[in-house]
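Hey, I'm writing a tutorial for new members on how sequence and structure tokens pair up, and I'd like a real worked example in the thread rather than a made-up one. If someone can provide the structure for the chain below, I'll link this post from the tutorial.
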Amino acid sequence: MQASLQVASQKDYRKEVSQVYSSLASQAAKDRQREMLAQASQQRLGQQARALARASRRAERAQWRVRGAVRRVLRLRAEPEQ
């Protein structure tokens, strides 16, 4: 009788351990997935910020080119014709 109770309690214990382990493993997987999604989001934000900075620099260079072209045209108009 005592042996059958021990076997039954061992099975219950193993089942409980298995359930706890499964629960912990599931929680760890969810945490890992949440971290990966957060990291991907941060990388996306970083890429967007770099793209915006690049676009801003290009627009600024284009603006300087226009200003330079306008100055050149005004200078050429101001020079006496030969």
